[in-house]
Amino acid sequence: MKVTRVWLRTWIVRSGLGLGVLCTVFFASAAAPLDTTLQLEGFTEPYRVSNVATDDAGVIGEFLVRDGDEVRAGQPLARLNNDVHEALLSIAEHHMLSEGRLDGARAELVMRQERLAKLQSLRVDGHARQEEVDRAQSELGVAEANVRSAQQDLIARKLEYKKIKTQIDRRTIRAPFAGVVTTFHKERGEFVALNDAAVLTLVDLNSLLANFMVLSPQAANMNLGQEIAVHFPASGLETHGTVEFISPITDAESGTVRVKIRVDNPQRVFRSGERCKIWIRDRPSKGALIRREAVSRGQQATEAR
C-alpha cells in the first residue's frame, strides 16, 4: 500500500511537470509574432547616368558648360569644330538665294507665249504659215521645261543648304535630359572618334534610386509602386520612396534580390552615394507557418510523454 502511494505521488508530480511544460510551449507558440520587422541598409545612385556622345567625328571646338553645371534637356553642351561646314553652308546659301536662272526661264516663257499668240492670230488671217505656229508651240514647250528645271534646281539647292545645316547641328552635343554635368572625358582641341565618342557625363539627380539586396522571401512580399519610408542616417532625414524595380533574378551565391526604390529629390536634399535604410515586415510564408505548427505539436507530444 505504501509503495502504491509513493508511485501515485511520483506520477502526479511528473504529470504536473509535463503539463506545465506543455502549457509553456503552447503559450510561447501562441504569443510568438507571425511577422517581424527587418532593417536593411543600401545606397543611393543617380536616377539616370549618360555618357553623352557625338554621332560625328571631329575636333572639339568649344565647351559650353563646366563641371557641376545644371542643364536642361536639349541644351547645347559642346560643339565640334565647324570651320569647313560653315564655309560650305555659306556657299549653299548663296546658291539657294540665286534665282537668276529661274527669272531668265520665266522671262523666256512669257516671250514664247506672246509669240505663239501672235502667230495664231496671224494664222487666222492667213498671214502666217502653220509651220511657224507649230515651231512656236514647240519653243513654248521648251521654255516651260526650262522653268520647271530651274525650279527643281532651286529646290535641290535649298535641300543642300538644309543638309549642311543639319550636319552642323549634329556636331553640336546636346543634353539628352535635365541633369548635372559631372565629368569631362575630352579636352578642347582633342579629336573625337566614332569608336570613342563619349565627351562628358551627365547625371539626373532630380530623383535617386535607393538600391537594396533583399532575401527572396522578403522580396516576394514587396510590390511595384509600393511606398516605403527611406531613412538617411548621415543627415537624419527621412522620406518616402516608391518601389520601381524588383529583379526577377535571385543571386545564386547570396540568395538575394536587387530592389530599387525611387526617391524624389527636386531640391537636392539627398546626395547620390549616401547610405540609407528601410524597414520591411518579414512575413513568414505559408510553408514556414505549417512547419512551425508541426514543430510545436512535436514538442508538445514529447513533453507529454
Give me the CATH superfamily of the domain at 30-45 and 206-304.
Answer: Efflux pump adaptor protein, beta barrel domain
Residue ranges: pLDDT <50 for 5 or more in a row? 1-33
- The CATH architecture of the domain at 30-45 and 206-304 can be given as Beta Barrel
**CATH C-level class of the domain at 30-45 and 206-304:** Mainly Beta
- Shape descriptor reads elongated
Strand order of the largest sheet: 1-8-11-10-9-12
Largest sheet: 6 strands, antiparallel, barrel
Rg (C-alpha, Å)? 43 Å
Quaternary state of the chains? single chain
CATH topology (level 3) name of the domain at 30-45 and 206-304: Elongation Factor Tu (Ef-tu), domain 3
- Look at the helices and sheets and give the structural class: alpha+beta
Number of strands: 12
Number of helices: 6
How many angstroms separate the termini?
Answer: 26 Å
The topology string of helices and strands comes to HEEEEHHHEEEEHEEEEH
Helix content: 40-55%
Portion in strands: 25-35%
